[in-house]
Amino acid sequence: MVQTKTEIQLVDGTFTVSEATDLLVALLEEKINFHKLHRLSLGERYPDSDTDYDDNRIHQLMQERTRVKKLYQEIDNPSAKIKIEGILNISLED
Q1: In this model, does residue 28 exceed pLDDT 70?
Q2: Predicted pLDDT at 50
Q3: Of 12, 24, 52, 93, which one has the fewest beta carbons inside 10 Å?
Q4: Which residue, 45, 61, 65, is CA-closest to 53?
Q5: Are 23 and 83 in contact (CB under 8 A)?
Q6: Could you count the other beta carbons within 10 Å of the beta carbon of residue 17?
Q7: What stretch of H or E contains 28?
């Protein structure tokens, strides 16, 4: 029987400001690259394909990346620790 719902603990830890920034920016970069490659692939296979979803996600993710960088630049305590918990909820859809 196929499991229709699961969770994956992607991130769970306490990090320095620098580590947290690096981690979150890297995750966002991976998602940006995924959508860029998906958009490119669609365009090559189907030149008239609608890439609005990928375009919008790239824009949103780039904004989030900027927000993460700004947020952590504002923390002026070099010994500050940041707790990050990231759970992916995955479910099978019809």
Answers
A1: yes
A2: 92
A3: 93
A4: 61
A5: no
A6: 19
A7: helix 17-45
Report helix, strand or coil for 45.
helix
Question: Which of 6, 27, 14 shows the shortest CA–CA distance to 85?
Answer: 14
Give residue 69's identity as a one-letter amino acid code.
K
Rounded to an integer, the average pLDDT of 20-48 is 95
The phi, psi pair for 51, rounded to 5°, reads: -110, 20
CA distance 18 to 72: 8
Euclidean distance between CA atoms 30 and 11, whole angstroms? 15
Look up the pTM and report it. Answer: 0.86
- The one-letter amino acid at 18: S
Choose among 10, 33, 31, 26: nearest CA to 69: 26
